Amino acid sequence: MIQALVLLLLAGSRVTGTNTNPRLKLSFHDLRGRHGLRTYELERSCCYDSLLLDEERGRLFVGGKNYLASLSLDNISKQDKKIYWPAPVEWREECNWAGKDINAECMNFVKILHLYNRTHLYACGTGAFHPICGFVEVGQRVEDAVFKLDFKSLEDGKGKSPYDPRHMAASVFAGEELYSGVATDLMGRDFTIFRSLGSRPSIRTEQHDSRWLNEPKFVDVFWIPESENPDDDKIFFFFRETAVEGSQGLGKQTFARIGQICRNDMGGQRSLVNKWTTFLKARLVCAVQGSDGSDTYFDQLRDVFLLPTREKRNPLLYAVFTTSSTVFKGSAVCVYHMNDIRRAFLGPFAHKEGPNYQWVSFQGRVPYPRPGMCPSKTFGTFSSTKDFPDDVIQFARNHPLMYNPVLPHGQKPVFLQTNVGYSFTRIAVDRVAAADGHYDVLFIGTDVGTVLKVVSVPKETWQNMEELLLEELQVFKDPTPVTSIQISSKRQQLYVGSRTAISQLPLHRCGIYGKACAECCLARDPYCAWDGTSCTRYMHNTKRRFRRQDVRNGDPSTLCSGDPQRNSVQEKKLYGVEGSSAFLECLPKSLQAQIMWTYQKTSSAPWKEVLWDDRVIKMERGVLLRSVQRKDAGLYHCQATEHGFTQNLLHLRLEVINAQQAETISLSWEEEPTQPFHRKLWYQDFLQLVDHPNLSTMDQVCEQLWSRKNQQPKRKPLLPPPLSVKAKNHKWKYLEEKKRARSRRTHEVPRSERGPRSTDFW
Ligand SMILES: *[C@@H]1O[C@H](CO)[C@@H](O)[C@H](O)[C@H]1NC(C)=O
Ligand SMILES: *[C@@H]1O[C@H](CO)[C@@H](O)[C@H](O)[C@H]1NC(C)=O
Ligand SMILES: *[C@@H]1O[C@H](CO)[C@@H](O)[C@H](O)[C@H]1NC(C)=O
User: Fold this and answer.
1) Is residue 495, in this structure, part of any structural domain at all?
2) What is the domain count for the chain?
3) Could you tell me which residue ranges the Ig-like domain spans (predicted)?
């Protein structure tokens, strides 16, 4: 046990994620104020776990606590319709007698929402530990504007919705039949994969057989055709469970699984009556190899997104995982191909001879038709599972588990984050047509209310991919876990649900990358291209000239060479007071850019790289010069290098004046009766704060300073002196310069606006 722990620790330290810094970070206020984020919340409700996107009607259907809602896909903040759907009082009381919290758990949490037919949805709720389902009329056309729960249609939701609002359930409609993975009892001990509704008899998994299901948590279900023949259609279940075959001595181990059943399974004739005869499952592996060859597994399957491709039977499956380990924290996204999944189900069966034996690969004779095959004309002569020979049924009952796991595409995660203080919860993927090919853009929800926008680009070949974390978007006011994500490629919008709210935001914000061709190019966002004057949405099929995009290489020197180079970086001036501090601020647009500072003492002197020491400190947002000296005066250049491309961001001339001069000035400011200005104090505070080890950025320094100032009611805020007074005095000119320099370092500019504010680069 201890040894294993140590191994895990070691493995953890060696596993390094992709670049953990997003290229851009956008706050909730930024997104709401400037980038079209809209939010929705229902009064006296919560927990928007189920979102259903309906492109045709242009609606987003939402399930929450005691409510169903229908929102406009164009703007979720307007035109909402809602249905109040509480649990009956008797059920709530029963629930309470069973020891559950009447206000937290004994409510109707709507967990399941499906499109049913052209006029109705099917919805299920926990009904205060008394699952319930029913039809919701939504009308055929947009104009119908109906949204009505048919209370007469309400029926028992056992085997469809969980009892407990904390439990997960997953389901899919295939025709008129609902396939669910869910707990079917109040205690949450009897789990099943269950077929209900429709006209055929209900079918379930073998009960109380840990080889079939062992404390599973169902994550997603998909209906995927196997061939042209619908008789071969299969339903695939994604879940995680306690592994029966886990390594001995490691305690309970969770494995991620994929399970399959045939859509035309009718159960057995003499045994496995009304039970699946085609159920098989395999381990789903998502792991990384440490430098010593040992693997770190991500076993906690959280979410799966099915990305359709041109071939209906071969969609891509994007899955999100986290680790089970309490020692090593990490999240990963792995992609699975149907061929690899099918290969595992065609491989050897896992076999255990008896209680004291190990799980091995079954070497004996597998009966015909091979368990897991659907009865159809494609692969055999059987027309129903009821005709399967007894030995097939017996074998199927005892061998639900495959020996070989399913490995992800490329044998490793496509995206990985370790030790970042959050984990992934949900995923949605958009396939984007760009100038040089198709790119899958991943939108990954986290447990801290953010969405990561990630794109995989080929490094040298299309086999060797590199992941770019383009954006980290704070889509909720509070750091609440993302519980659902829906994507509309048609409307280019993302819809995100959590416990507290639903947010809607566009898939791209091209303008934010900057006002130059090179900046647009460096962003490598497949949604965006340079159109000759600005960075805008790239549309693949429009034949506009001057559309420049290079997601693959992100190389502005070739792409933007014909572009008018706005290379004249304006020079700015900053005054430093000898013995005090000065801050040279330079913010690149990209958080992934490397900043280099160079310095020239006089115009004839050579350029030198700025050297860092205790006094000259490189900070996140610029350079801090503590105790400015005369020799610091000169010209400073700030250059950003990203992806091998360098651009000038700022030229700054620092002039140094002595403390005495500064003293006179500060006195003259304080003499000003209407606007007391405590310049000296400001510098003192500043220095003190800078010595504070906990404040790493200039913003924090200044925020602290401001909040302290504001707590002192007698003092007015730091305002510049009125210009009319002594305006002709040369001192004032100097002060003006100085004031500007200072406010540059502090608050005048919204923090979101990365990069030097003026149009002075390029
Ligand atoms: C969305 O609707 C709300 C409420 O009607 C409105 O205040 C807001 O401006 C709309 N937003 C957009 C982007 O249309
Ligand atoms: C859809 O299903 C509901 C519930 O069974 C039924 O009342 C309705 O007539 C159906 N609509 C269509 C268009 O078949
Ligand atoms: C500085 O940060 C550390 C760790 O985050 C914290 O324990 C400590 O209390 C902080 N000190 C001050 C003065 O805020």
Assistant:
1) no
2) 3
3) 564-666
